[in-house]
Amino acid sequence: MSQGGAAAREAAKSQDQGWAWMVLLAAVLLQGMTLGFPSCIGVFFTDLQHEFQASNSETSWFPSIMVAVLHGGGPLCSVLVKRFGCRFAVMLGGLLSGVGMVSSSFCKSISQLYLTAGLITGLGSCFSFQAGVTVLGYYFVRWRTLANAIASTGVSLGFTLWPLLSQYLLDEMGWRNTFLIFGGILLNCCVCGAIMRPVQLASVNQSPKPAEEPGKRAEGAQLSNGASSPHPELQQQTRRTACFQMLQKYLAFDIFCQNKGYQIYTIGVTWMMMGFALPHVYLVPYAIQNGVEERRAALLISIIGFINIFIRPLTGLLSGHRVFTGRRIYLFSLAVLLCGLSNFICVISAEFSVLIIYCVILSIAMSGIGALTFQVLMDVVEMDRFSSALGLFTILESITLLIGPPLTGLLVDITSDFHYVFYNSSFFLISAALFMGLSFFALEKKTKLKEASKVPLDNPSRYQYNEMPTEPQSESQSPPAVVYITSI
Questions:
Q1: What is the pTM of this model?
Q2: Radius of gyration for the chain, computed over Cα atoms and rounded to the nearest angstrom
């Protein structure tokens, strides 16, 4: 009873109570400052165009790079957390985010903005956000689901407040000074990281590793001293094996090739992301071009975020009802379809009152997409491979998030018509919704026919969409490994 029992008691004391709630508050602020931040970039779109004499396509690369890096940097953040811990990753991310925005206030060209605010700030936001979500798994066991739900409200709060603050500062002191102030605000991620002190895990007993063979020890010592390996071919084969295992751990290509449900869902969401981010980038400049006052145009984005605060939890509760067990993919497809159809409202009219109706409907659809994206992924993939499946999933969606807005901006530059933004968005969203819904319906029907004819399946999860039951973790069990979690 010694050190193991004392460590277990200390870990239990810090979980689900006391300081854990301060860590949860820090996680709420982190999500508001990181995931909510890209929502304000549309406010600066017109000013950046005039400042750098840039086209729509060139200007849209800036938010595209930021969002793509924010979503696709999960594997790198995972390595960082595993090596140095969550607190270090959050504080490093806050430092990078602050330095990126401060540097961007001195940029002389739009390409410099890609590097500073796009790459550096996006990478810093990725580190802070994902490490901040990971640390909740260590501080909460019994109330982990509630903690993650509360933390996700930070995204909606950021989505609401960032555009309003951006428009006020832009009117008062210009975009350069605003970016300088934003750098100072994002440095507060370091303060949030300082609150997240490391937790001693309750489960400290590990099975001892078998002793190494004397020959392997001697070879390892020889290599560590800088000598060449006596078996270069064996060393090269071992290196290839280690590389393959790392790819399989963080990027689940084997699941993508074998699991039809995961394959359909990943392709559908990746295609959907080509059009999903377009209204967030172009809605404000579209409204300004059609005579809406700048302050009122920025208010449109805040309306979307404000409604998300209330609708997203309700959507999560609704999707958890037993009626939707095994059918959440159809609810998700319906939300994507509604999101695509809502874009036609903007095409009909650009009046401020009509745009408000559009934002309300879009926000409801976005709440469904945000609440169900990773829940559906958990339904189609076994939980013991979820982290690796999520790694490939986020990287593929980050690629389309990167190229979607610039390609649409190029179309707007050629046609000089902002309506193509919403046509383009509707095309990708509606086609993705129909693809996912019909494909899963066909897959389910095929599975039922096979079951009726009593044809045995080697691995049912490869052919059908079903819910993967997960056992609740006991308090004595250590939290899961690092999982890349992003939010839409």
A1: 0.74
A2: 24
